Fold this sequence. Notes:
- The structure holds two protein chains of two kinds.
- By secondary structure, chain A is an alpha/beta fold.
- Chain A is built from twelve helices and nine strands.
- In chain A, the strands form three sheets. In chain A, strands 5-4-3-6-7 form a five-stranded parallel sheet, sandwiched between helices. In chain A, strands 1-2 form a two-stranded antiparallel sheet.
- In chain A, helix 1 packs across helix 9, helix 7 crosses helix 10 (239-253) and helix 7 (168-180) crosses helix 11 (257-276).
- Chain B is mainly beta.
- Helix content of chain B is 10%, strand content 37%.
- Chain B has a five-stranded mixed sheet with strand order 2-1-5-3-4, covered by helices on one side.
- Chain B starts with 5 loop residues before the first strand and ends in a 5-residue tail after the last strand.
Amino acid sequence: MQNKSPCAKCAQHAAVALCTSGTHLCKKHFLESVEKRFKGTVREHKMLKRGDHVAIGLSGGKDSVVMMHLLFMLSKSLPLKLTAITVDEGIAGYRSHTLKVAASQAKKLKIPLIVTSFKKEFGFTQDSAVGVLPKSLPCSHCGVFRRSILNRASKKAKAALLAIGHNLDDMAQTYLMNIMRNDLGKILRFGNASNEEQADFVPRIKPLMELPEREIALYAMLKGLPIHFQECPYANKAFRQHVRNMLNDFEDKYPGTKVRIFKAMHGIAAALNSKNGKISIAEGTLKNCKKCGEPTSSRQELCSACKMASAIKQCM
Amino acid sequence: MVDKSAITVYSNGKKHLLKAGSTVLDFLALGKHSRQTSVVKVNGKVCPESAVLETGDRIEVIKVVFGG
């Protein structure tokens, strides 16, 4: 193999070409580039301040592990308290691998780790719940349950913020999905969700949101992080997978598409929110779920997670 | 007689015949791998898609999966 492409910053051979700009960088300068952009996102969106206690949603996949390492690195200059939370959905042949990675990496960085599960919180695993509700795709209830558990666990740990490992690809996919579904509420909530002011939701931050998924994977590999590139067995059933494939095709043909979608949606949400004040996207005020105490809209007795869990148990 | 216009590379235990001067990007296109979801190692090293392949190169295409 002949690698003649030089690094844009030094005389070394390039290891990586950046997704959007095509800039070639050697290993050292690529890692620095990712770390710099990560810090830039945190700073620009005012995600963190000195002394914050941040819960980390740690699945053990590439995004959350990289995010944990980057937050750990940041915590040396911006003192932060970090607590990792892992949710075992109960997906045979998949989750056990990533749980091991989550545990080993949290231990390596000496970050306290809380492990919980669908089984513990709701009484059933994802595997046993799939197909129980008619017309319900596996990812629909998986995401709802996981978000609910992460929120509860973050509150219990007394964290001020919950860091989620959504990357640029996730963000661009989500916006397109929200548009396709005409979900104005979610479109308005776009972006750094630390502006969430809804009672009882631990504000979420997404410090990876401007980093392409592929570059996060490259960062993990070049850093020697023990990542298993194994896909959730239910992923190909998700609506998101179709959007992902479409977006990747566009990105191949028109580099920079994902970044432009991200910036457009960020701008639209900011413009709408500033014009109308903080638009209340919840229907009426929030109240607490009768079963678990988590926030739910005033029209509902139970939160989405408890409603879905109840429906699944009835069908089992 | 050696065909100097072709190179032989290996991936997943299989032999692939490519035109001389083919790059990693050409190999991805041949296998219909999207650049967005693939990271490539050649002879055990991560390299950019512009790297030019040579006979005997061992290529590993790692699929970047979503979720995590």
